[in-house]
Amino acid sequence: MLHQRVSQTVLLLSLQTRFTIPPLPGCHLHCPLSSPSPLVTPPQFSSFRSASKLEISKILLNCPYKQADSDFIPPTWLLKKCSSVLVPTITNIVNLSLSSGQFHPILKESTISPLIKKSTLNKDQLSNYRPVSNLFLIFKIIQRVVKSRLTEHLSSNNLLNPHQSVYHKHHSTETALLCIHDHLINAIGSQKIFGLCLLNLSAALTPLIITS
Q: Are 85 and 174 within one domain?
């Protein structure tokens, strides 16, 4: 239960300030101002590196057996079975999307299914459901390639927050819990104030644009 609460944490605010003691008469407190850090030009990220056939093949074989129903895109199991023939074509589609900066509108279509938010909720009440979008497999492949490029850029340039646990390799709810516990123990040991703000977004809905 505690791990579940940590996984739902999207905002962590830790305020560590020393207890302030009013100055004694005749005493003067000297607080030297720290010099501002010099401005650093952020690294440029103007284009995506092309994907290789080997990379697309690994992504395809690791994809789960689910995707949106379509009359013109084969199912996932068939794409995997014919991967040796279809990988070059899929790689070409992915690289064209990366180089042109365009995403075909057909790939943005999805099959939306209702999913109960919690098993204990009333299944006859529509507000207890959230929509789940089942997207095309090619969409997921392009998404994973883009995520890989962005993560590589952020990691190589030290742009990721060291306390970020979500969407961060080798990080999980356990590392987030250990980080919070470590900050709390250090703050108590140093006689500091520790503030923690948690937001529960487990019942949040995915924004949808529905056209009739």
A: no
d(CA 67, CA 110): 8
Do residue 52 and residue 149 come from a single domain?
yes
**Side chain identity at residue 64, one-letter code:** P
Question: What string of H, E and C letters represents the secondary structure of 101-122?
Answer: CCCCHHHHCEEEEEEECCCCCC
Q: How far apart are CA 69 and CA 109, in angstroms?
A: 10
Distance CA 5, CA 199 (A): 9
Mean pLDDT of 34-46: 67
**Torsions phi, psi for 9 (to 5 deg):** -80, 120
Give per-residue pLDDT as tens, 53-91: 999 999 999 988 776 656 566 778 888 888 899 999 999
In this structure, are 150 and 69 located in the same domain? yes
Query: Exposed/middle/buried for 150, CB within 10 Å: 0-12, 13-18, 19+?
Result: middle
Residue bearing tokens 């070059």: 88
Answer whether 116's CB lies under 8 Å from 164's CB.
Answer: no
Same domain for 152 and 62, yes or no, is yes
79's tokens: 């794409």
189 part of a folded domain: yes
Q: Are 101 and 50 in contact (CB under 8 A)?
A: no
Q: Show the tokens assigned to 9.
A: 């944490």
Which amino acid is present at 184?
A: L
Contact call for residues 34 and 202 (beta carbons, < 8 A): no
By three-state DSSP, how is residue 123 classified?
coil
